[in-house]
Give the backbone structure.
Amino acid sequence: MSKTTDKVINLMEKEQATPNNKCLPKENIYKSLASFQQECQVIHKGTKGYGYSYADLPTILSVINPLLKKHKLGFTQLLDGTELRTILFHVSSGDTIESCVAIPQGVQLKGMNDFQVFGSAVSYFRRYSLSSILGIVSDKDLDAAGEQVNSKKNQPNIKFEKGSLTDLQFARAVETIKEGKYSKEQLLKTFELSNKQSKALELC
């Protein structure tokens, strides 16, 4: 038997003797998410809605970002046409969990043009999609708040807040603009940009 064959056999025997410690698919992200949920508090405070209180997007981010970092989690939210895709990822393993929501079209809000309505809707669904994928509570439960009303005049006008972008999300938005799939005007109507982001957008 050759020395090369001996080495191959020895390697195979060592591999068989070593316990299989490989994680199951997405086991890492689910463990980290469970640990995150144990620490994350209820965040429905700070902003008043139609008869209820809720946490706006900046408030949610201020609470969850330190915990996401601690448990090696991150997220990004991408616009794909009229859909919002939320991706939660585990930094070390690359495991991901995704969700996608269609943003309603043709909604009219008093005092807002079409771009402002769309921007407000994006911010609104960013908040709910992020809360949903993380399994956190960001507003009070309204299941028993009252009877359902079908009359349009009794339905509240939903007011959405303008969202913000991280530098990474802004960079991806700029790439989308350069590809012709998005416009500067849509970005400005949708998000509140920092001074640095506004100057960078002018150079595009």
Remarks:
- Residues 114-134 form the longest helix (21 residues).
